């Protein structure tokens, strides 16, 4: 201790650094310095105002250290310390480890650059006072209410902008809901004291709070991300720049029929999801790819949603309405359900509708529990379509026993079948070769390829023919046993299904075979091909006919006639050699016409099988020249008369024929001239002689109405005794007083114009006419034709004129009915049943035989009136009946008026021409025109007088009456002498007359009506 107090020489430095929180002594030992002991050191420190001077031991230890370092340099030591103040700390965040993803590093720089500085606001809550009015009720039942004013204190919030340093110090990436960091609470701070004992104050923080900007949520001491994005943090703030990646998912509707895309769009800077990945995800749900929309459509959806920034659940299925139907096949033995789910934006499937349809279908034996279970399973499955789901089944009928086939033909022997089949193969090869060989001569015998190249040869070739038989057209081939009933079944509606008869052995019918019920027959002749394979019988009739050559001689053997028919199919064909052989067998040697033979052969070949050429004269004998006392010279008609009239333009008029030869009374018909020819024997076609006849008798037979007149030169002239129709043949001549047509008047007969009675056995067809000076009798009917007679017209079958028929008679017309025709009769018109929509002019009377005659429509004029059962129609068809005047005179008046009108027009024209001639000075023409005008004026006077006379005649009244025993319908008009009476309501049994004294039409009821 004594040593410690030994002074130490040296230089002492006391350092007190601002803010005086520590005292540092620096001592460097030196003999030139002051002496220092712990006590002197303490005193020196005290002199400096140090409040807590260190103890002697601390100072002694310092001096000891300094002495030990003598000569080595100064020694420093901290010998006293103050109490430093603890400054207040603001709220401090402790950030979580949320680095920016590597793939967003570049994007983050762009986002920060494009985002404006943060705008931070804090919520200030302030108390406010407001005055309110309160109504106090009185405590007494009838007391008045009292109104008082009170002061109410509330707390209101307002946003206040916080100004910050916008510098960004840290950057994170957080997803929505992530914990971004935790807040360390702020501390208030503790004041200190320096080494002199003076207090050291703490600084006051301007804003100790840590502020969270938009999209960050500060909940107690946690900071969480309200959205996904970049978190930028500054000195005392942080905010979140929204930035989320695109997110998507796919899902199915409850019925697995529609696929949906759930897409949450992220930042626009992020590439859109790959549509193909979305489609693949939908397929893996699973969902049928063919029901999805195209990738380009999905891309458009993603683009639109990203632009809008909205999250949506969109359909990515193609659209289809749901549908269902119940299908029952034609046999009604099963019922099937087809269900198709709706998809996309189409109408969805409603299971209740499906169930209702099944219940109302009328089907029987339905297992509703199973059906419901299966349909629900389909609904919940990923299947889009439920097709051919069996709802129920009926009971099929059991057919009867198999039906047997009984053949009615005789099959050819095997060698014949072999020969015919070989011929078919040969002809097929030959036809193919000829088709390919252009040098084949045109006149070479051919087989029609269509007859041997049958369509069935593809399935039934020639080498599979097992049997053959020759058959004829419409020949029975086989018959099938009658059916035996089987056991009936029940369809899905519960109806009985009759059982089919037993199955028929399967028969395939090819060409030229038909089946009518249980009978199979041919439709043409030929050869039948038969094949049986695996229980199936194939039948075919193919053309097969040998050429036919027949030579016939006339009874006098003066002509040889040849009939030919070409072969068909696999039959033999016509050849000239075969024809010559047939002629030789018939001993035809004389008068052969070689050209006719060649032509017949060509024609028969061209016509083909089934079209025989018959009775072709190919040889003629040499006729004998008979020694005869006369020969005929025709003076009327004869071979030169043309049956068809030729018009001026050279065309033929087939309606106006020259078949009827009309002669007058006393007209010469022919002359019989004596012959000087000697008898010369002839030769028949077999070469045998034909003796000539010596001086035979008179050859021409003279019929009725023909007279004979001997002439001085020895000839005989035949003359007609009457006017009529000449009929002349090689052996007979006669004149008929009437003309008869056995059938219809049509193209085969032509128009008829005859000076006498005409009898027609059939119908006069449209477009033809019959004109006669006598009576006309028609056994059939009359169509749109002209019938004109100087006598009566009698029609048995009625007139259906079609608006074109015209009947003209100078006497009477009799017919059961007349429809749509024009009728002109000087006498009466007598009918039986009806007169429909026709024009009638009759100077006699129109009557009906019987009590059912009726007149419907048309304009009818009858001088002597009508007798009919009913007139008109319940439909009010207009029917006009005129009576009491000479209506043929009316025709003359009309004709005369037209002629007068023509003369007037000519007079006007002559006047114009005269004025022109006067102007031009054409004196000659002027005189000619004046002379013509004088003649025209005289003609006008003459025709005017005639017209006046005719009109007086027409005004003459003829006693007549219209008697209607039955109904007269509305629309019926009666007319006479210009007076009319129209029936406006139905009447019955009336008589209509014209009263010449009053000039009125009188209507009276029939007696007993």
UniProtKB/TrEMBL annotation:
InterPro entries cross-referenced by the UniProt entry: FapA, FapA_b_solenoid, FapA_N
PANTHER family (UniProt xref): POLYMERASE-RELATED, RNA-BINDING PROTEIN KHPB N-TERMINAL DOMAIN-CONTAINING PROTEIN
Protein name per the record: Flagellar Assembly Protein A N-terminal region domain-containing protein
Mitochondrion is among the record's keywords: no
Residues of the Flagellar Assembly Protein A N-terminal region domain: 171-232, 464-526, 549-728
Coiled-coil stretches: 893-920
Top-rank taxon: Bacteria
Residues spanning the signal sequence: none
Alphabetically ordered keywords of this record: Coiled coil
Keyword Coiled coil assigned: yes
Pfam families: FapA (PF03961), FapA_N (PF20250)
């Amino acid at each position: 201790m004594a040593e410690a107090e030994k002074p130490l020489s040296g230089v002492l430095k006391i350092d007190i650094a601002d803010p005086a929180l520590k005292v540092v002594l620096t001592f460097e030992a030196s003999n030139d310095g002051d002496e220092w002991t712990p006590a002197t050191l303490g005193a020196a420190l005290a002199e400096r105002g140090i409040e807590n001077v260190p103890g002697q031991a601390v100072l002694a230890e310092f001096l000891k250290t300094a002495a030990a370092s003598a000569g080595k340099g100064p020694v420093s030591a901290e010998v006293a310390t103050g109490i430093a103040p603890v400054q207040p700390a603001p709220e401090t965040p402790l950030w979580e480890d949320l680095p920016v993803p590597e793939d967003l590093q570049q994007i983050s720089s762009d986002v920060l650059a494009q985002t404006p500085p943060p705008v931070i606001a804090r919520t200030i809550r302030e108390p406010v006072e407001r005055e309110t009015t309160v109504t106090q009720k009185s405590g007494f039942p009838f007391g008045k209410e009292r109104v008082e004013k009170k002061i109410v204190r509330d707390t209101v919030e307002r946003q206040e902008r916080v100004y910050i340093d916008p510098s960004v110090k840290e950057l994170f990436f957080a997803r929505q809901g992530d914990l971004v960091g935790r807040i360390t609470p702020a501390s208030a701070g503790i004041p200190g004291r320096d080494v002199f004992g003076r207090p050291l104050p703490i600084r006051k923080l301007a804003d100790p709070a840590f502020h969270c900007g938009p999209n960050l949520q500060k909940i107690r001491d946690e900071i969480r991300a309200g959205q996904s994005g970049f978190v930028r943090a500054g000195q005392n703030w942080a905010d979140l720049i929204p930035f989320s990646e695109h997110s998507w998912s796919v899902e199915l509707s409850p019925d697995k029929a529609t696929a949906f895309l759930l897409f949450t769009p992220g930042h626009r800077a992020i590439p859109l999801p790959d549509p193909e990945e979305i489609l693949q995800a939908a397929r893996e749900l699973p969902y049928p790819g063919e029901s999805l929309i195209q990738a380009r459509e999905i891309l458009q959806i993603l683009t639109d949603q990203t632009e809008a920034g909205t999250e949506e659940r969109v359909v990515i299925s193609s659209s289809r309405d749901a549908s269902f139907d119940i299908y029952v096949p034609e046999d009604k033995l099963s019922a099937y359900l087809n269900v198709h789910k709706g998809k996309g934006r189409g109408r969805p499937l409603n299971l209740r509708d499906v169930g209702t349809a099944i219940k109302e279908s009328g089907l029987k034996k339905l297992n509703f529990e199973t059906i419901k279970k299966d349909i629900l399973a389909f609904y919940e499955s990923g299947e889009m379509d439920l097709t051919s789901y069996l709802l129920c089944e009926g009971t099929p009928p059991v057919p009867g026993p198999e039906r047997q086939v009984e053949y009615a033909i005789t099959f050819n022997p095997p060698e014949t079948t072999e020969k015919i089949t070989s011929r078919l193969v040969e002809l097929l090869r030959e036809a193919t070769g000829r088709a390919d060989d252009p040098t084949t001569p045109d006149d070479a015998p051919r087989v029609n390829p269509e007859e041997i190249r049958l369509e069935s040869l593809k399935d039934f070739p020639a080498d599979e023919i097992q049997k053959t038989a020759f058959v004829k057209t419409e020949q029975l081939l086989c018959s099938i046993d009658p059916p035996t009933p089987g056991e009936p079944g029940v369809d899905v509606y519960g109806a009985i299904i009759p059982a089919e008869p037993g199955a028929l052995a399967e028969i395939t019918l090819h060409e030229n075979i038909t089946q009518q019920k249980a009978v199979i027959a041919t439709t043409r002749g030929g050869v039948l091909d038969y094949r049986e394979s695996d229980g199936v019988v194939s039948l075919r009739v193919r053309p097969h006919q040998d050429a036919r050559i027949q030579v016939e001689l006339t009874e006098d053997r003066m002509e040889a006639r040849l009939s030919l028919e070409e072969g068909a199919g696999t039959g033999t064909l016509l050849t000239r050699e075969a024809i010559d052989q047939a002629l030789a067998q018939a001993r035809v040697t004389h008068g052969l016409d070689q050209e006719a033979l060649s032509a017949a052969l060509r024609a028969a070949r061209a016509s083909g099988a089934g079209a025989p050429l018959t009775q072709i004269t190919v040889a003629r004998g040499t006729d004998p020249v008979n020694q005869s006392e006369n020969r005929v010279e025709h003076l009327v008609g004869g071979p030169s008369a043309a049956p068809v009239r030729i018009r001026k333009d050279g065309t033929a008029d087939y309606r106006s024929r020259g078949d009827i030869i009309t002669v007058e009374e006393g007209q010469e018909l022919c002359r019989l001239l004596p012959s000087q020819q000697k008898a010369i024997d002839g030769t028949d076609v077999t070469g045998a002689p034909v003796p000539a006849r010596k001086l035979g008798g008179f050859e021409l037979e003279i019929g009725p109405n023909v007279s004979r007149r001997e002439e001085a030169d020895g000839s005989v002239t035949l003359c007609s005794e009457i006017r009529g129709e000449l009929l002349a043949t090689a052996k007979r001549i006669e004149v008929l007083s009437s003309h008869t047509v056995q059938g219809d008047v049509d193209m085969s007969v032509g128009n008829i114009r005859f000076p006498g009675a005409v009898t027609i056995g059939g119908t006069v067809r449209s477009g033809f006419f019959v004109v006669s000076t006598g009576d006309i009798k028609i056994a059939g009917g009359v169509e749109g034709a002209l019938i004109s007679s100087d006598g009566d017209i009698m029609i048995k079958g009625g007139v259906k004129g079609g608006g074109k028929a015209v009947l003209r008679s100078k006497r009477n017309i009799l017919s059961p009915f007349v429809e749509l025709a024009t009728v002109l009769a000087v006498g009466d018109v007598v009918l039986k049943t009806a007169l429909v929509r026709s024009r009638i002019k009759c100077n006699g009377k129109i009557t009906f035989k019987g009590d059912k005659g009726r007149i419907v429509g048309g304009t009818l004029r009858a001088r002597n009136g009508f007798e009919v059962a009913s007139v008109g129609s319940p439909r009010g068809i207009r029917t006009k009946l005129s009576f009491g005047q000479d209506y043929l005179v009316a025709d003359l008046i009309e004709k005369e008026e037209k002629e007068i009108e023509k003369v007037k027009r000519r007079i006007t024209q002559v006047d114009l021409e005269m004025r022109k001639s006067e102007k031009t000075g054409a004196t000659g023409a002027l005189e000619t025109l004046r002379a013509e005008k004088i003649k025209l004026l005289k003609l006008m006077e003459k025709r005017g007088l005639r017209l006046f006379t005719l009109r007086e005649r027409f005004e003459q009244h003829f006693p007549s009456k219209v008697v209607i025993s039955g109904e007269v319908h509305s629309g019926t008009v009666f007319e006479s002498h210009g007076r009319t009476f129209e029936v406006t309501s139905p009447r019955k049994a009336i008589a209509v007359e014209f009263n010449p004294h009053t000039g009125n039409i009188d209507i009276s009821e029939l007696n007993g009506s």
